[in-house]
Amino acid sequence: MAAPIHNWGLGMIAGEGYDLFDSLDLRREADLWIPVADELPSRCIDGRREYDIEDETKPLPVAPRAASASVSLLGAAAMLCNKQMPELLRELVKVKPLGCHRGNASPPASGCAATDAMQTVFRMIASGAVSALAEEIGLPVNLSHDQARWRIRTHRVDGNTLVSYIQARPGRHAIVHGPRREAAAVINFNEGTTLDSDRLREVHQVEVFAVDAWTDVAGAICDISSTTDMRAAWDAWFGFNLGTLISLCSEKAPLVIVGDPKANIERLMSLHGTTYTPSGDTEIEAAKRRIAELTGGEK
């Protein structure tokens, strides 16, 4: 685990309680990590306890975490194409497992900060803050600041509408209650694991934001955005998660990296190669898609 990164956040969640978190060595606290089989995130980074929205006595399944769960795939896809949000949403809900959450908020807000603040996340990307933080982590990302600025101007879907559309489909849909108390942000690059936020809260009285950055998200993002560049898809997803953390956390909240970022991206790119071929595509169909992408759709 690398030394925490400080003075990086621009948000309002101040990180009080870090003295408790600082005493933990996450590498040695084996009971704080849970094995997980899913490759796609369907739980949010939120440090509060998540409840099943239909039955709050029912525990949610263990799953990888990302900014607003499946919404992180939507945010990444929006950075790769000029499809409008309703069209991207129609593609997103084909993803399985699907997941997102809402909190105690009134429309047009959903109560999920990553969803409600999507324009702010795009601003973080457009400003260069996300690229700078990725450099400091040691995993540079290639993000289009012009695309982020275009999304800021054109994003018209409020958080409540977006979450309602997703939660109308089968999936892992949650609700959270109570005030925000996240003391830090954790980005996990250790494959097949996720932080046990409930145990962290109950045993150590600490809440954190947690992103599972080892997840194999690029193929799903390529499907949603109709692009084929696997590395660009992962960069956009990682950038969206970093932008969310920057927009939520204040400079007082340390950022902790667990695992090896470079080894993780090398593993992910080795799984499928850097060019994505959608399932069911023949080689000829895949070639046509690639030609269309390179020529801007010209015939």
Straight-line distance between termini: 50 Å
If you average the pLDDT, what whole number results?
90
Summarize the helix and strand pattern as letters: HEEEEHHEHHHHHEEEHEHHEHH
Structural class by SSE content = alpha/beta
Overall 3D geometry? Answer: globular
Strand content: 5-15%
Number of strands: 10
**Biggest sheet statistics:** 3 strands, mixed
Please give the count of helices.
13
| Relative helix content | 40-55%
Strand numbers in spatial order across the main sheet: 3-6-5
Structural overview:
The protein is α/β, with parallel strands linked by helices and 299 residues long. The protein has 13 helices and 10 strands. The strands form 4 sheets. A 3-stranded mixed β-sheet has the order 3-6-5, with helices on one face. It is globular, with a radius of gyration of 18 Å. The relative contact order is 0.23. The model has no long low-confidence stretch (mean pLDDT 90).
Key terms for this structure?
299 residues; alpha/beta; three-stranded mixed sheet; three-stranded parallel sheet; 41% helix; globular
Give a short overview.
With 299 residues, the protein is an alpha/beta fold. It has helices at residues 18-22, 71-78, 85-92, 113-116, 118-126, 129-137, 145-154, 159-167, 197-204, 218-225, 230-248, 261-272, 283-295, and strands at 33-35, 43-44, 50-52, 65-66, 99-102, 172-176, 182-188, 193-195, 207-212, 255-258.
Present the secondary structure layout:
Elements: H1 18-22, E1 33-35, E2 43-44, E3 50-52, E4 65-66, H2 71-78, H3 85-92, E5 99-102, H4 113-116, H5 118-126, H6 129-137, H7 145-154, H8 159-167, E6 172-176, E7 182-188, E8 193-195, H9 197-204, E9 207-212, H10 218-225, H11 230-248, E10 255-258, H12 261-272, H13 283-295
Parallel strand pairs: 2-4, 5-6, 7-9, 7-10
Antiparallel strand pairs: 1-8, 3-6
